[in-house]
Amino acid sequence: MNFELMTFDLVGVAHKKCDILLVLLTNKFQPGMDPLSTMIAQALKLGDLSSKVGSLLDIYRPAGLLCTRLVLIQAGDATSGEIRKSIAASMALLKSAKQKQLVLFFETTPSVQALRVAMTSLADSSYLYTTTKSKNNSETRSIARVMVSVPDSANLTAGFERGAAAVKGIEFAKEWGNRPANHATPTHLAQAARSLAKSPRVKCEVLGPKEVAQLGMGAFMAVAQGSYEPLRFIILRYSGAPKTTAPVVLVGKGITFDSGGISIKPSAEMDEMKFDMCGAASVLGVFKALAELQPDLNVVGLISACENLPSSKAVKPGDVVTSMAGQTIEILNTDAEGRLVLCDALTYAERFKPRAVLDIATLTGACVIALGGVRSGFFTDNEALSTALMSAGESSQDLCWPLPLDDEYAEGLKTSFADVANVAGRAGGAITAAKFLQRFTAQYPWAHLDIAGTAWRNGAVKGATGRPVGLLLDYLMACENVT
Ligand code: BES
Ligand code: MN
Ligand code: ZN
Questions:
Q1: All structural domains of the chain
Q2: Rounded distance from Cα 399 to ligand 1 centre (Å)
Q3: Which of the residues 48, 98, 218, 378 has an alpha carbon 20 to 30 A from that of 366?
C-alpha cells in the first residue's frame, strides 16, 4: 500500500477530488461554516453519527464536496487505541469498496503515534492476499493509494515515514505467513531473506543441514529429520550503527508446517499449521521495515526454518538429543518442536554479545487459551525489557501482556533420561515452554513472545496478521534513542 502525506483543513479537503474521503472525527471537533462542517454538525446533532468510537456514517456524492463517497468515523479522543478501533470498524466497508483513491482525513492533527496506528490499521483493513489465486479468479486490492491529510503536517513527517515502513514490513510478514507450506518451504524463506539483503546495510547468510550439524544444533536437526525438505538456518544482519554497538537479536520460529510429527495433530484445522512460521515472518517483516527506514541501529535476525513431519526417519517420543549448548533433551512429545528449533538459535545468538535477545514464536496452544487473539504473551525476567515491550505494544497498538517465569513452573520438565524434557504437563503450558527456553538464555537479557493467538486470524477472515512486526519495530526504534 502506498501513502502520501498532505496538508488540508475541512474547507480544503472538501475540494479534493477522490473516490473515498474517510474523515476521522474527534470529540474536539469545532464546526466551521463550510458544507462539510455543517453536514457533520447536523449528523452529530440528529444522532445519525453517535459519539461512540467506531460509529460510522457512509454518504454517497455529498453536496458541496468533490469526493464520490464520504465516510465519517467517530474516533473519540483519538488515542492510539481509539484510532485502531475506529478504523477497524470500517473494515467491512473498506474490504468491499471498489474505489481506488482514498483520502484519510484527520479533522484534528493527531499525535505521531496515532498517525502511525491509523496507517497500519487502514492497511490491515484493506489487505488482500492474492499470490496463490489464478489470474482469472484474483481480485485486486481496491484501495492501493492513500493520501493521509492533516490540518498541520509540520511535525509528522518522520512519524509518517515510520508508519509507511511499518506497513511495508507488516505486509511482507503477512505475505509469507499466508503462503501455503508448499509455497513457503525453508528454502523459500531463505530466498525471501536473501532478497532483503539487496538493500543497503542488510546482509544475509544461509546455513544448510551440513553447517548446522557442524555447529552441533542437535535439537533443531531432530525436528527437521522427518522431512524431505532440508532445513535452513537464516542469519540476517542490519548494520546501521558502529560495530562496537551491541545488536538486538531477533529469533524467529520458522516451522513452515507443523503436523506434530510422530505425536501427530488431529486433522481438524491442521492446515492452519502453515502459519507456524509467523515468528520467522515477523523477523523478515522487521528487516523489510529496517531496510526502508535505515535507522542507526544494529539488529541481527535468526530464523530456524524446517518442517515438522512424521516419517520413518522422524524423531520419536523418548529420543534424547544434544542441543548446541550441550544440554541433552528428552523429546517426550514431537509436537513441542518450536522450543527445540529455538533453543539452538538462542545458543547461536550468544556470539553476537547482544544487548537483548527477543524470540518470537507461535509456540503454544496454551497461550491462545490464556490470552486469545487480542494480546501476545511475553516472558522476561528483565524489568527494563518488560517495560519496553509493554510500551512498544501500546504505541504500535500491537498489544502484549506479561506472563510469569517462576522457577516452580520448571518442575515438570525434569526427567531421569536427559538434562531436561521438552514438555511438562498440560497445566501452564505457555509458561513451561518459556521455562524450557529460558535455560538457554543465561548469557544476555532475554524476552520470549508467544504469538500463537495473535499471528493469524481464523474463520471467515482467516489470514496472517503481520503481528508483532509493529511492536518489534517500535521496540527497536526506541532502542535507537538509548545507545
Ligand atoms: N505450533 C504449535 C502451537 C500452536 C497450536 C499454535 C495451536 C497455534 C495454535 C506448537 O508447536 C505445538 O504444537 N505446541 C503444543 C505443545 C504441547 C505438545 C506441549 C501445544 O500447544 O499443544
Ligand atoms: Mn507443534
Ligand atoms: Zn509448532
A1: 2-152 (3.40.220.10), 168-480 (3.40.630.10)
A2: 21
A3: 218
3/310 Cα distance (integer angstroms):
46
Query: What Å distances lie between residue 474 and 135, 177, 292, 482, CA to CA?
Result: 37, 21, 14, 13
**Which residues have CB under 8 Å from 326's CB, separation 6+?**
none
> What does the pLDDT look like over 113-154, one tens digit per residue?
999 999 999 999 889 999 999 988 778 888 888 999 999 999
Distance CA 414, CA 423 (A): 9
**Residues 340, 342, 345, 347, CA torsion sign:** negative
User: Alpha carbon of 83 to those of 43, 53, 243, 443, 474: distances in Å?
Assistant: 20, 8, 39, 40, 17
Q: What's the rounded Cα separation, in Å, for the pair 293 and 40?
A: 38
Separation between Cα atoms, residue 246 and residue 254, nearest integer Å:
25
Dist CA 179 CA 170 (whole Å): 14
CA of 314 from ligand 3 middle (Å) equals: 15
Q: What is each CA distance from 76 to 25, 304, 375, in whole angstroms? A: 7, 43, 22
Active site (annotated) includes residue 467: no
Identity of residue 102: L
Tens digit of pLDDT for each residue in 312-355? 999 999 999 999 999 999 999 999 999 999 999 999 999 999 99
Mean pLDDT score across all residues of the chain:
96
Instruction: Give the residue among 248, 282, 304, 459 at the shortest CA–CA distance from 376.
Output: 282
C-alpha 408/C-alpha 116 separation (Å) is: 41
Please give the single-letter amino acid code of residue 339: R
pLDDT tens digits along 52-105: 999 999 999 999 999 999 999 999 999 999 999 999 998 778 777 787 899 999
29-38 as b/e, with b when 16 or more CB fall inside 10 Å?
bebeebebbe
d(CA 16, CA 13): 5
CB-ligand 1 contact for 453 (6 Å cutoff): no
Q: Which grid cell sits at 50? A: 453517535
Nearest CA to ligand 1 atom 16: 336
Say whether 359 sits in a helix, a strand or coil: strand
Q: How many CA atoms lie within 13 A of 181 on its CB side?
A: 21
Q: How far is CA 21 from the centre of its chain?
A: 28
Reported as half-sphere exposure (CB side, CA atoms, 13 A), residue 77 has a value of: 2
- 358: CA distance to ligand 3 center in Å? 18
Q: Which residues contact 308 (CB under 8 A, 6 or more apart)?
A: 223, 226, 227, 255, 257, 258, 259, 260, 261, 276, 334, 335, 337
Nearest CA to ligand 1 atom 7: 365
Which residues lie at CB < 5 A from ion ligand 3? 255, 258, 276, 338
